[in-house]
Each structure stands twice: as C-alpha cells, then as structure tokens.
Automatic annotation (TrEMBL):
This is Endolytic murein transglycosylase. Belongs to the transglycosylase MltG family. Its EC number is 4.2.2.29. One of its GO terms (cellular component) is plasma membrane. Keywords: Cell inner membrane, Cell membrane, Cell wall biogenesis/degradation, Lyase, Membrane, Transmembrane, Transmembrane helix. It comes from the Bacteria. It comes from Paracoccus sediminis. It is an enzyme of class 4 (lyase). GO terms for biological process: cell wall organization; peptidoglycan biosynthetic process. The record marks E260 as: Important for catalytic activity. Functions as a peptidoglycan terminase that cleaves nascent peptidoglycan strands endolytically to terminate their elongation.
C-alpha cells in the first residue's frame, strides 16, 4: 500500500513537472517569436568576435529583447549561435527575438550606425558623414565636405576607419561618366587608379554599398554591368515601331530625356516630343546636347547658351544636325530609359519651361509661340535674360 502511494505521488509529481515544462516551453516560444518590447527602432552593433552571451546581454540593455536566456536558447535551437555577423543592424520596432536572430546572423552591409556617403551630383560632388537616429530610423548629417575645394574633416577620416561603418556611393540620375570618376577619385575608402573614363551613358545611377579598400575600377565595372542589364531588359520589352535601330540609340534618347526634365511624370511626354520630331524628320533642337558638346561632360556650363554656339555645326548641336547626337550626353536612370522606349502617344512637337519646374507642351508652332511668350514674361519678372534661345527658334 505504501509503495502504491509513493508511486502515485511520484506519477503526480512527474505529470506536474511535465505540465510545467510544457508551459515553460510554450512561454519561451511565445517570448521568442512574439512582438518584442521596443517601441522604437534599435541600432544593434555586433562587435568583431562577439559572443552570443555578450550580444544577448547588450540586447536586453538596449531594450530590444526582454530575456537574454530565452534569446540564447532560441538561437541555439535554430543552430545559429555561431553565425553572428559583425556589423551594425537596424532592428525595427517590436521585432521578435526570432527576427533579430535573422538580422544579426544573415549579415550583409550595415544598415544603421555611422555612414560615410559619397554623393555624385550633377552640380557638385560631396562626401557626407551621417549617423542613424534610432528614434526616427533616419540618417542625420553630421559633417560634409566638397572634395573639389575642401580637405576631408577629421570626423570623416575617423569614421572611415571605424569598425562597422557603412560605406556607400550614391550616383544621381543624369550625371556624366567624368563626374562619376572624379567623385570616386575623392572617395576616401576606395583604392586604385581609373585608367579610362567609361563610355557616356554606360553607368547605372543607383546607390552602391562598398567595402573599405574596394577597387574604383571594380565599382565602375559593377555600375556598367547594371546599366547593361537595365538597357537589355527595357529594350526587350519595347513596343513595335520606335525610331531606334539599336539599344544604343535608345540610350542616347534616354540621356536627352533625363537632362531635359527633372519632373519624373514628364519623362514619357518629353520622350514623345523627340520621337515625334524624329518621325517627322524634324531636328531635335535640344539645349542639353549643345551644352554637352561644349563641356564634353566635364562639369556644368554656368551660363546660358550663346547664339554663336547654337549656330555652330557640331555633332552635338541638334539645332544644326539631323537625328540623334553620336553618344549619350549623361548616364540616364531606368525611368528615363523606360520613357525613351515607352513614350506617351501624343501629337506634341514642342515644349518650353512653364515656370513651375515643368514644361508646357504644344502641338503647333502657334501654340508653342504663345507658351514661349508666357515663359519670356516669367523670365522678365525674375530678372533673367529673356533672349536666351528655346526650342523652335532655329
């Protein structure tokens, strides 16, 4: 009888322990996969060689996870305890432990913390030092310099050497290949010489993640590879009947569209004007091509075009020569390439600035002259030169 009572009590205790263990496992799973405690984004930095124990304690201190033991146990269960990747990672608000494990073990470029950004712009290049504000999830500028006229401040030099710093090159749409090369020469984290300037139009505007000591030539090759892929894909999907014999001709048109308008939704309309003019045997009469013939893409023409320049017969003066210029005049983005290959169906053959940053489009010379008169009046009101040439003057 006594042994029966002992066995019964032992069985009862075992059942209680099993229930408690099951409850603990269920609680742990809920803690591991459920929403995390942080109401804001967190920048989690994994130091080189950091242990799982150190990282789990750091996450608790930052308020990103609620229990370091559950985090370690879950990471072990997923067999990722040895997969921690050095870097700085942005963890979104209320991220679960499971999500955080994925973020810090998948690796890749740092997504928060300190960033050194080389910005390749049409009018200027700049090197920026930025830090992520975890409360807003946005980068805030801490320092900057113009590599053409200034020396790098110590803060930027130190940031390049900082472990985990994010290093990027942001290439704007419409910059020339010469401008890109000049910017990469000034990038403090890249190495190597650039022997030749890439062909105009051959580089894809985008933001590129790089590593300290990376090759300038290799980055240019990557830019060219992306642009070739974009052009091939858009050319393959083009509609029938466009006035281009080759993808290269479409790229030339895309570069003109890119330089003619900064309004994204206007690109297909601008492309339609030039396509219509080509199909009617009209000259393109576009200022950006003339400007490129003067500057050769090496900087910005800081003045208006002169009548003598518009009268000169050069390969890039589309007021004087038929068809497209011989090469692109900038590096167009995907949207401009798509617009050149998918122009709107319109009867427009003229356009002129409308004073709002966009353009007024016209079907006839009479309509265009009225639009030009409105633009001239805006120029007078602004104190600008109202005699500068516009499309249709030639």
């Amino acid at each position: 009888m006594m042994w029966r009572n002992i066995a019964s009590n032992f069985l009862t205790l075992l059942i209680v322990l099993l229930i408690a263990a099951a409850a603990a496992v269920a609680w742990g799973r809920h803690q591991f996969s459920g929403p995390g405690p942080s109401a804001v984004a967190q920048c989690v930095q994994v130091a080189p060689g950091a242990s799982l124990n150190a990282v789990s304690q750091q996450l608790v201190e930052q308020g990103a996870v609620s229990n370091s033991y559950v985090f370690r146990a879950g990471t072990d269960y997923l067999d990722k305890a040895r997969d921690l990747k050095f870097g700085s990672y942005l963890v979104p608000p209320q991220a679960s432990m499971e999500e955080i494990v994925g973020i810090i073990t998948e690796g890749g470029p740092s997504t928060c913390g300190t960033e050194v950004l080389v910005r390749v712009g049409v009018r200027e290049n700049a090197v920026l030092l930025r830090d992520m504000n975890p409360d807003t999830g946005a980068f805030e500028e801490m320092a900057r310099f113009d590599p053409a006229t200034e020396t790098a401040p110590e803060a930027i030099t130190a940031a390049v050497d900082k472990p985990g710093a994010r290093l990027r090159v942001a290439m704007a749409e419409g910059v020339t290949s010469w401008q890109v090369v000049e910017a990469l020469k000034a990038a403090p984290f890249l190495t190597g010489e650039v022997e030749d300037i890439p062909a105009e139009g051959s580089l894809a505007p985008d933001t590129y993640e790089v590593e300290k000591g990376g090759s300038r030539s290799a980055l240019l090759a990557l830019m060219a590879q992306r642009q070739a892929a974009i052009l091939a894909a858009e050319w393959e999907a083009r509609p029938f009947g466009l006035p281009y014999d080759t993808p290269e001709e479409a790229l030339i048109m895309a570069s003109i569209v890119e330089k003619e308008t900064g309004v994204a939704e206007e690109r297909p309309q601008v492309a339609s004007v030039f396509v219509n003019r080509l199909e009617r045997g009209m000259r393109l009469e576009t200022d950006p091509t003339v400007i490129y013939g003067i500057t050769n893409g090496q900087g910005v023409l800081e003045r208006g075009l002169r009548r003598s320049e518009l009268a000169a017969t050069t390969p890039y003066n589309t007021y004087r020569v038929d068809g497209l210029p011989p090469t692109p005049i900038a590096n167009p983005g995907r949207a401009a390439i798509r617009a050149a290959l998918n122009p709107d169906s319109t009867d427009y053959i003229f356009f002129v600035a409308d004073g709002t940053g966009g353009h007024a489009f016209s079907r006839t010379l009479e309509e265009h002259n009225a639009a030009v008169a409105r633009w001239r009046e805006i120029e007078r009101q602004r104190g600008e030169d109202p005699t500068s040439p516009v499309q249709g003057d030639g």
